[in-house]
Amino acid sequence: MKRRQFLQYSTLSAAGLTIAACTSQGSTHFTQPPANFGKVEKTELKIGIVSSLDCLPLVVAKEKGMFKKYGLDVTLVKQPTWEQVQQELHSGKLDAVQTLFAMPLWEYFSSKNSKSRARSQSEDENSDGEKKSKDRDRDKNKPKGSANTVALMGLNINGNSISFGEVAWKGGLRPRQAYNTVNELQDGYNKFFRELKKPPGFAISHPAAMANYTTRYWLGTMGIDGERDLKFQVLAPDEITAGLDSGSVIGYATDELFNQKTIANKKAFTATIDRDIWRGHPEKILATLDTWLKDYPITAKAMMAAVLEACQYCDNQENVTALAPILGKSEYTDAGNNKGWQKILTGNYNYGGFDRNPEVVTVPDFQIFHFQQTKYLQQPNHANFLWHSHAAWVVTQMVRWNQQQLTNYPKDADAVIKQLYPTESYADVAKAFWLNMPKGQLKIEQPEMFIDRIAFDPNKPMEYLNGFELRA
Fold this sequence. Notes:
Structural class: alpha/beta
Strand order of the largest sheet: 2-1-3-11-4
Shape: globular
Number of helices: 18
Largest sheet: 5 strands, mixed
CATH architecture of the largest domain: 3-Layer(aba) Sandwich
CATH topology of the largest domain: D-Maltodextrin-Binding Protein, domain 2
Radius of gyration: 22 Å
């Protein structure tokens, strides 16, 4: 099987070195009066979060009084899964949520396909001469039009890992830095998967998780088919641990805090982090429903301003010592007694292993909440800006793996993305923070951003898709 060109790890590492310390572009507002967007329509808010490192900006905004500064009384409501947080949002129990970057697209195409199936069923039944009374009964069960989840702003970029359990370690797999050459790594992983008697289980948190897309992408660069050589399963953290113990899953792709806790408990080791697969990829977002945004536009801006201020706070290294005890509170995360994840905030990442040699690597940009000057993140770009080209990349991967019955890049994709990732409200907030904004919403992801050195041009999505040999 022909493999797509791999980027040498030595070059890969050099490309990701942070050029300067964590530096916020624009002005941080910690000591500044709140920006005035007008009178907020709603002061008491409930925001859903999931126990992960990237809920930190919301926790900081709550604990450090940034929400109150903007006239908001916010309750953070911890949810067990991304699916549950979305259910609570659509039920009206939550005003906004921390969720997956691709979630608006996932829900939109899911709803669209459900309506298409309902219409097809309706047409088939009418052609068979169903009685009108039965038609009326059937219509009651048709999918109803519902509000769309829309992204308000990004919460962070990067931040996931791909990890394997002891079975893979005993089979010879190791963290990427343990291999001397790319060919050695490719051969080792290919040999391991080819010798398995059947495709092993592999856990993800949600089909729309960026970790799902980057894992499949990473495997594909090594000639491993994520669709046929593994069996992806959606599991909650406690189910992943049980799966590793029972052997039902061989590994998982997820965000922190879970991974460092699992590594500390000698349940897994990290093979690679997704920052080394696609540098600067979007991760989690602050989102709400389009109907809510329409009803409470000033409240939305006040909420975004508080979170943006918190994101700037999180990227300031002077504040690192204050972050860990805040995030570690049980009402926000399931960190438990393990504190290994705290080292991530200081720029050190533990890859783990089943020997006595800790694999701690300096990774200052494992997760960026607002801005660090790197080769892939330069002013006026910043982590909170929603690139429509990032959403376009996600759509190509949904098509590649035939998610939501997508077999071709939708002709109306640009319009859909514009609808689900609106920019006007965030632009007003950024202006109030004296933040320069990138020109336009589309950018070419240069080849050095990807592990296989294949550029992504959002204006040529089908050409990009046709370059993949491995796809559903």
